[in-house]
Amino acid sequence: MFFVISGFVITSLLLRQPERGIRQNLAHFYVRRIRRIVPAATVVLVVTVAAAYVLLGANFNVQLLGDVRWAALFGENFRLINTGSNYFIPGLAPSLVTHFWSLAVEEQFYLVYPVITFSIVRFIPSASRVRVLTGFLLIAIALSAWWSYHLTPVNAVAAYYTPFTRFWQFALGGLVAVIPVAWARRTPLVNSIAAVLALVVIAVAALRLNAFSTYPGVLAWWPSGATAVLIWTGPSSLRAAPAAWLSWRPLGYVGDISYSLYLWHFVWLMLPLQLVHPISSPLARIVEIAGAVVCAVTSYHVVENPIRRSTSLGRDPWATGLLLVICLVLSWDVTFLVGRLVHVS
Description:
Elements: H1 2-15, H2 22-56, H3 63-72, H4 76-83, H5 100-123, H6 129-151, H7 156-161, H8 167-178, H9 181-185, H10 188-208, H11 221-233, H12 242-246, H13 249-256, H14 258-270, H15 282-308, H16 311-315, H17 317-344
Helix pairs in contact: 1-5, 1-8, 1-11, 2-3, 2-5, 2-14, 2-15, 2-17, 3-4, 3-17, 4-5, 6-8, 8-11, 10-11, 14-15
């Protein structure tokens, strides 16, 4: 679902950019991505390493240090492929930054996709741009979805983490963004029914897909296709349709803090299970979720918004580049420091 939504949002953003040079548009896009993504992620990586070292004691896994370095470089998915890691291996505690694999896949997709989109806008006549981009997205969906279908039963870990089995999900969201909105406005009642069915499919997928599912493969179409339907039908449904439910202000706020919540949730849920004396009661789970929400809200208002909305950083791309370097240095330095302390102890 995250990949489809991301593809939709970013494609809509790219198509709204002014018609200027490809280099200028790319610089503008990547500067915004750095301010939006990197500082909050860096805070979580640094806190995760420090908290793990302080709280886990003899259970501290030095492999976490390498995982954090790869996560800081948006390469955690390849790290997990090379180490054979999986969310779902019974008895094996996952890395506390395992969830950074999906952020890595997203950023890898956006190393390529904006170049293609801006090139189409720059060199293709305006009357043909949507058709050319639609054709590219359809080809990307077909090739990536086929590779996902082929690789999943052969190498489940690689299929789960590699970007090549996931790009179709971003492309699917992008396809929804380029289909004319007027098409959906013709059938509000049908859209509303389709949106309800899409929610049902997502719920079934959440309940039925588990560690034994052959995923992503074909099964990834359940949540991905349903998410695409929800996005497509949202603006053109009846008032009582799911779009109205999902627009409820508290849910909208959850959407606002969703990136920070994504960053913080995993360490809160997993670190207590890796303590020398694991904590796993239902009450502990509630406290952990509450802690993740508090951290997400704090991160959103203290780190995310001030940095991404900074007018000084917005005027100076070189300052944003320096911010990126500082964040990378902080992430790596904390791993070297903790590594030295582990070696000394």
